[in-house]
Write a structure and sequence with these properties.
single chain; alpha/beta; 5-stranded parallel beta sheet; 14 strands
């Protein structure tokens, strides 16, 4: 239950007492802190979150404000340092604690000392360089031999960076016609995520390192604060561990970043990096041309000497060939003469041998022919005798056969003559004249022989042939007889 006797204050009364207390004890003090966050509003006030770190751990934290009436110190900071107030910058400022019942505790910043931030950044960079040196990274990338000619180039930059376009313009538009292969590994080169983005780009380059002769880090200028990202330890270590040479062309002239220190070579601008690569190609081409001229000169000298040697050798060779030719011809003549004589001897010998063979062959042939002739004569005689004997036998046989045949023919002819005589006699006896002569007659009707009384009509005129003379008669009567003729 609420105790009505307790003395109390309202929140505003209590906070007002605290406000008065803080105002009594508070005075302007120089304070060092790191900016964790900063924003500005339309009224020109800067609202800042301040922190203090120890071993990367926040040990103190509060809000601060730069009222618009004091904004001149912000502009002065930029003019003196070349960088905007931003996250990560440690500042020394003159400030005073304030408290408001509604808005709470804040430090009102009256003045910022730019020389402290510059010194702080330089100190931080120095510590980073010392650490990299201790760990052996500061010159590690410098130990990698730079290729004689750099043609395959990995570029770590932002595509929108002005330095990137300048870099490509010099390489791609070179008047010598050299060809360069470039590949952009896009990354943020400013802002809170720049370091992580650049490290990721370098890691992608390392994965494809075998495809490149060098990696070029390009930005294109900026304030000291903008370039502070290139003093980051992890980024510098990543660059130092690259397996190919790293060149920087960040675009600053007043100072050297840690990235420049660990790079194999650093240049003030991206254009200077491109010119270095181009000059290296030109120098290589010039050396090649010089080498080519030297080779041509030496080759010409060598050829001149060799031609002279060859001409001498050729003359000696021709003389040697000529002498050898004459010797060979002499030997060949001797050989030909010797061969000719041997051939003649051989031919003579062969002729004699052939003559002897011919004589012997002639004799043997004659003997053989004589013997064959005698033998043939004997055979011929024997054949003739045999033929005569056969002919005699055949003639005798033919004569005997002829006589026998003649006798047989004669007998046959005699027999046939007798038979013919008998037939002639029969024919003579059967002739119509002899028949008519024996008292028979032939009756004609209309010129045809009449053989049947049935063929003649009554009162027909018929003719009767007698042996001597003819008779014409008229049929007055007739008898027909269909049986056989019976004359008697």
């Amino acid at each position: 239950m609420f105790n009505v006797d307790v003395t109390y204050q309202t929140l505003s009364q209590y906070l007002n007492e605290i406000k008065e207390l803080i105002q009594e004890i508070s005075d302007y003090q120089w304070i060092v802190a790191e900016i964790a966050k900063i924003d500005s509003d339309k009224n020109g006030h800067y609202w800042i979150e301040l922190v203090e770190k120890k071993d990367n751990e926040i040990v103190a934290k509060c809000d601060a404000v730069v009222w618009s009436r004091n904004v001149e110190t912000v502009h002065n900071f930029y003019l003196k340092t070349g960088m905007e107030l931003q996250k990560g910058i440690k500042i020394l400022f003159l400030g005073k604690a304030t408290f408001h019942e509604k808005y709470g505790f804040k430090i009102s910043i009256y003045q910022i000392d730019p020389s402290f931030s510059l010194g702080e950044m330089a100190l931080k960079k120095k510590e980073t360089i010392e650490r990299l040196t201790r760990e052996g990274f500061i010159d590690r990338n410098k130990l990698i031999e730079i290729p004689v000619i750099i043609q395959r180039i990995a570029i770590v930059s932002s595509e929108s960076a002005a330095g990137y376009e300048d870099f490509l313009k010099i390489l791609k538009g070179n008047k010598y016609g050299f060809k360069f292969y470039t590949k952009l590994f896009d990354a943020f080169v400013q802002g809170d995520s720049a370091v992580a983005s650049l490290m990721a780009a370098f890691q992608r380059c390392a994965f494809e390192a075998k495809n490149f002769d060098a990696v070029v880090l390009i930005r294109g200028g900026g304030s000291v604060a903008d370039l502070a990202i290139f003093n980051d330890y992890e980024l510098a270590k990543t660059m130092a561990l690259m397996p190919v040479p790293v060149f920087t062309g960040i675009g600053h002239t007043r100072d050297e970043t840690v990235a420049d220190r660990v790079a194999s070579m650093s240049f003030k601008t991206p254009s200077e990096v491109a010119k270095f690569i181009l000059d290296r190609a030109v120098d290589f081409d010039s050396r090649l041309d010089t080498l080519r001229q030297r080779i041509i000169h030496r080759a010409e000298n060598f050829l001149s000497v060799e031609i002279s040697k060859n001409q001498s050798i050729e003359e000696r060779f021709k003389l040697a060939v000529k002498n050898s030719r004459e010797k060979i011809l002499q030997k060949m003549n001797l050989i030909v003469s010797e061969v000719h004589n041997n051939v003649l001897k051989r031919v003579h010998s062969e002729r004699e041998f052939l003559f002897k063979v011919k004589q012997q062959l002639y004799k043997k042939t004659n003997l053989i022919l004589t013997a064959q002739e005698v033998e043939l004569t004997n055979i011929n005689n024997k054949v003739k005798m045999k033929i005569n004997e056969n002919m005699a036998k055949q003639n005798f046989r033919i004569s005997s056969y002829k006589d026998s045949l003649f006798t047989k023919l004669k007998n046959t002819l005699s027999l046939k003559n007798i038979q013919i005589e008998r037939v002639n006699e029969k024919l003579r006896l059967l002739s119509p004249e002899n028949i008519l002569k024996r008292g028979y007659s032939i009756t004609y009707l209309n010129g045809k022989v009449l053989k049947n009384s049935g063929e003649v009509p009554l009162r027909a005129n018929i003719q009767i042939q007698l042996y001597k003379g003819k008779i014409s008669a008229t049929v007055t009567n007739k008898e027909e007889n269909n049986g056989e003729l019976k004359l008697f």
